[in-house]
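Milestone 3.1: sequence recovery, worked example.
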């Protein structure tokens, strides 16, 4: 669940450690400085097929039962659904707790890869990649992650963790999604180049909360493809100032201004920006613009 590159190697050159405890996993990673943690291994398979540089040492986490499962935890007055990093995407889709308390996250999980891949791919791998399709939804949900970094266990807002790109060596322990707020509306939308399984053009998620026709809170996030997911804070502030007085044209323009995209041989950055803006405006128009 960590990307660290070394010289090109063949598959026969790769040494695999399979620890059965978290302590053993940390020791294996410490022994092989250039090694990487993997869980389902689906992202590494894609990297291999794309001729990306591979490592000589892999630390497989598949036997660490302590990093699997879904449960409710309470911290102070807050309750969270805690999802172990090695929980598969398919398990997230079918678990009673995620279905009951995390419907937006479940919607995002439905968009990840093909069904066969979801049986192997883990939520930890999707998050740790920093470009996973679940991340826009997790940003909107104000989720947290627990990870081991520099030998210390810490819990951070997922937004803060995404902004901290300096330390790429970490072991993701779990993802914590707060219990849903009352009177909140959510959406998640992933757009690909075609109906078949392809990387996203963009993935967009949002939430808003009204009380007596007053907008109390709004969160918007964009990611997908090779985008590092981001919250659109300026657009959120524009809407919260007085949502009923702003035109869709002004909000659309602010989305294009704030969302930094990229071009590739298939699509331009401007096209991706406009797709994201059109999705958000369409959803907001149904509510209050």
């Amino acid at each position: 669940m960590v990307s660290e590159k070394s010289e090109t190697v063949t598959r026969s050159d790769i040494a695999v450690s399979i620890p059965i405890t978290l302590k053993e996993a940390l020791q294996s990673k410490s022994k092989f400085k250039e090694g990487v943690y993997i869980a389902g291994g689906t992202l590494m398979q894609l990297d291999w097929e794309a001729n990306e540089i591979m490592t000589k040492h892999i630390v497989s986490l598949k036997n660490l039962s302590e990093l699997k499962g879904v449960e409710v935890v309470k911290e102070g007055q807050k309750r969270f659904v805690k999802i172990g990093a090695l929980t598969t995407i398919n398990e997230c889709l079918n678990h009673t707790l995620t279905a009951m308390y995390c419907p937006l996250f479940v919607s995002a999980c439905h968009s990840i890869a093909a069904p066969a891949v979801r049986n192997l791919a883990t939520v930890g791998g999707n998050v740790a990649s920093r470009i996973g399709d679940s991340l826009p939804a997790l940003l909107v949900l104000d989720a947290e992650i627990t990870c081991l970094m520099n030998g210390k266990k810490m819990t951070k807002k997922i937004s803060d963790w995404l902004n901290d790109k300096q330390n790429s060596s970490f072991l993701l322990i779990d993802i914590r999604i707060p219990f849903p707020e009352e009177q909140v509306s959510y959406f998640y939308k992933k757009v690909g180049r075609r109906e078949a399984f392809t990387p996203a053009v963009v993935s967009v998620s949002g939430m808003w909360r009204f009380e007596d026709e007053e907008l109390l809170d709004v969160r918007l996030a964009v990611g997908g493809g090779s985008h590092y997911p981001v919250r659109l804070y300026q657009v959120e502030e524009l809407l919260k100032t007085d949502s009923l007085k702003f035109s869709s044209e002004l909000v659309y323009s602010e989305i294009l201004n704030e969302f930094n995209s990229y071009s590739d041989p298939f699509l331009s950055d401007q096209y991706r920006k406009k797709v994201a803006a059109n999705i958000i405006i369409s959803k907001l128009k149904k509510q209050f613009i």
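The longest strand covers residues 200-211. The first helix runs from residue 22 to 31.
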